[in-house]
Fold each of these.
Amino acid sequence: MGKVALITGATRGIGKQIALTLSQEGYDIVINYRTENDDLKNTKKEIEKNGVKCFAVQGDVSNFEECERFVKEIIDEYGKIDILVNNAGITKDMLLARMKKEDFEQVINVNLVGTFNVTKNVINYMMKARSGRIINISSVVGVSGNAGQTNYSASKAGIIGFTKSLAKEVGSRGILVNAVAPGFIDTQMTDVLKDDIKDEIAKSIPLKRMGNPKDVANVVKFLVSDDSAYITGQVINVDGGMLM
Ligand code: NAP
């Protein structure tokens, strides 16, 4: 059997591209989705075109019991999970003075607690296998901060601390844990911004453009490959030089 990669929130954007890129490398893909829609059907079809299996599991990553259930579904199907990419994430941007408590909690619950919920349910299987790769999708704003994103930046900074701590805990078991911190990537998440604001941000980036999901997926491809066998506990920025 080939290697099995679970990617959370994989029906569109960066998660979808990671799933497609890994399927091109021959990994069997498990996509986690929250909402059943055409994005899910199309993603599944595109992955299967690459000649690998695609198994889809429904579940809200912010709900521990749902994560427990869908990880069991994957183990029943494949008996293992070789690669976990914690990608599911949301934003609810607002200056702190006007931010509702619910908006803070929801972002932390999906982005940070969600990363815990899925990893906690997967880690024992990887520990038994004495191998595994975990990639957590953070963000450059988890390092730099960003006005209007106290909730999101805190969640993404939390993911960095989680990544480094877990890398220290499980390195001796052959499990490598790294984070990828994208900058400004062209997906539905950033589509809410007006074009002139997007142009202004792009101009401020040394490489003078927004990133695309492939820019991020290619780094994940490297981090799950044998070529990165001596890299753990790192945060790799994929940001066109935005943060340096
Ligand atoms: P996106 O296009 O909005 O896609 C997010 C995906 O996550 C969707 O498939 C969404 O599914 C899923 N999701 C959201 N909440 C979920 C939950 N509770 N349980 C399961 N799935 C859930 O966003 P993106 O730009 O691809 O972002 C992917 C990751 O990259 C996120 O962690 C984001 O924070 C990070 N990132 C993005 C950028 C950027 O510039 N785009 C920069 C830095 C970091 P639904 O359809 O159900 O909502």
Note: Helices lie at 13-24, 38-48, 64-78, 101-129, 141-144, 150-170, 195-204, 213-223.
Amino acid sequence: MKRKKFIEVSGKSLLGLTVLSQIPVKSMAIISEKNIKSDGGTMIEVKTKRLFLEDTWTISRNSSDYKDNVFVRIEKDGVAGYGEAAPNVRYGENHNKTTDRINGVKSLFEKYDLWHYVDLKDEIFASITDQNCARCALDIAIMDWIGKKLNAPLYKIWGLDKSKTPLTSYSIGIDTIEVIKKKVRAAEKYPLLKIKVGKDNDEEIIEAVRSITDKPIRVDANEGWKSKEVALEKIKWLQSMGIEFIEQPMPSDMIEETRWLRDRVDIPIIADEAVKTVADIPKLAEAYDGINIKLMKAGGPQEAMRMIYLARAMNMKIMLGCMIESAISISAAAHLSPLVDWADLDGNLLLREDPYQGVGVEKGKLILNDKPGLGITGEF
Ligand code: MG
């Protein structure tokens, strides 16, 4: 039997027991729930699934073999919308809190019509203030439902041209030099690479990658350089290696130091950890050339759209990124991607097995299908 690479942490079927036995499973606190609502019956189900990575994923601050993502299914009038949350420890998120927050706003679905999704989103944001990924899961599910009800893919509802989707970069995490080389070779079909650095052997990593490929490379330090002098020296060196841009060189609160840095380097500096929602953008405009928008940080596609328009108005470059996610949220982001300069929507490509199918990738280009809503298939 083919080994299932993901399991439902809280579900009845614990597939992939060989994997499970190697990894301690935390409490089975999250249970799939069904909740029939009175206003015509909105049913909301929440489920946590453990998604295993193909390889151990290491960035400057942590390392993981799997992610426990929270999935939401909203059903009304015979149509179901799907959403996903990818809780991130960097932002104080976890799957238990995320599930609690989603369960905590179910009453809003009695009060608001799903068609009034703008008002509903505002209410969800007012109610959930500490788990943006929970906001995101609900917003994605609502937008999927809207698309399915209108029988149109989201990119069409948003007036976007799917031929304008960008290429996505493919990310290489921090690892031994031999493994990094192996991963770069295995990523041959992807025309753009994003390389994680921020430990003490950055130069060795970049030299190893450059010894194999002359593809465009983007570099993400994940706040790994702790002083502006170190960051300056690193970026000057990266420029000599033909790097396209640098993402989050220093800790997110070092805005003044980043502004200092920006005056002294030639490649764009992109904010990631420093920017979550639209409210963060104005204070960053002097320090960064662009922002990395992620649905999980933003709280869903509606907020991401607002961020895109504000960043454009402030003449900032826009990157659309992701966490480790399934095709549900990667597809949601991909529907917005015709609006952005750069995409880094590879979270599902790093999974051993994605429970869902949605946006495709051909020679690095994001390929949206014409199914309604997110255009995803797969069992909840
Ligand atoms: Mg980043």
Note: The chain has 13 helices and 14 strands.
